[in-house]
Design goal:
- The structure is a single chain.
- This protein is mainly alpha-helical and 438 residues long.
- It contains 23 helices and no strands.
- The longest helix is centred in the middle third of the chain and has 29 residues.
- The protein starts with a helix and ends in a 6-residue tail after the last helix.
Amino acid sequence: MGLTVSSLVFIGAMIACIVSGHTMVIALFIGSAAFFLTGRKKGFRTDELLQMGKSGVRDALVVIRVMLIIGFITAIWRSSGTIAFFVYYGIKLITPDLFLLVTFVLCCLLSYALGTSFGVAGTAGVIFITLARSGGVNEVVTAGVIMSGIYFGDRGSPVSSSAVLVAAISGTDLLDNVRNMVKTGIVPLLLTLVLYGVFSFANPIHTVDHTFLEMFREEFRISLWCVLPAVCMLLLPLLKVSVVWSMAASIAAGAFVSLLVQHEKLTVLLKAMLFGYETEGALGGILNGGGLLSMMEIVCIVALSSTYSGIFSGTGMLDPLQEKIRPVIKKTGRFFSMVLVSLVTLGIFCNQTIASMMCCDLMKKPYMEAGASKQELAIDMENSVILLAGAVPWAIACSVPLGFMQVGLAAVPMSFYLFLVPVCYGIQKKVANPFRAE
């Protein structure tokens, strides 16, 4: 079984899982078997291929560990009232002309602190799209604003699973990557703020439904203590505390607030951390979720995808594809080539994690041969595949948040930040490359 045949088997299995609604883990198992057989056909022994797969998983263990911790955090921030606090005061800050701007800033803040796009889309995103509908604001524009905000943190937060993944597979330092993402993201962020500021004044909210404020007050004790878990997450990495310890501090702070401020029972809190936060109140449909089990599918996806990386690297299976990529890099430049590969892998695999790992597997060797650094590879991925995943209509990173908000694909063109980052960064690399001359 050659690479082409095994790739078609994998893609076919992926499409079948998407259409039937089954987990992509099944397709990854099928693809793993197909690539394993290809490796056998190339003359590698079974034990050699197993060792390659094991090596790939070993490289991804740091990512898996962070993802499991994120599961705890997404539940405990719900239980402690941290998410409720930010949304509560975000709503109170809203004036008619600033609705969209406040929505964008709050989604940026929450996604940066939590490091999860889906978690913010399913909570704050749902609340703000509801406010937009009730207040006469264009829901398509609002959904685009929310998409931009949730992927601000997904791209650039030190506790984002995608940022941790890119650092791990590219062999770079996470905090160095975050600093470079800040540098390359300032201009597009300012442009996005200006654009949404204009749209905000052009689409003022007519009435603000304060029902949510009452619901939050009934469900939580809204106080400054609720901010403590977020302060740990935002401040400690800036003080060069490792991401894992910062996340652990946030969990401890969240547990403290849940138990002593929200008066949650310890058994209920532990259950929420494992199985997800649940409340029978009016906010249950929005706040329920998170927990360790919510991350198990993505952990399986990362682990299985990592076996591919090990097999691809050990067998040289991707060499023919990389030979075709090299002339494209010479002709168009590294970043433009990365964007093309990102769109192709996202279009085929419909999954940000799988596409990220495939981009790294395909582009790492050509990048190094072209004189690029590992850090340039990492930032090019952050500014392409990570963000563009939210702009490919059939990709999970796009369809799921829009599904939460019950808004169609017309919101994608309004997600300005997703497009401004690659455009601005591409221009920056051509004019004054922050890494090396192309």
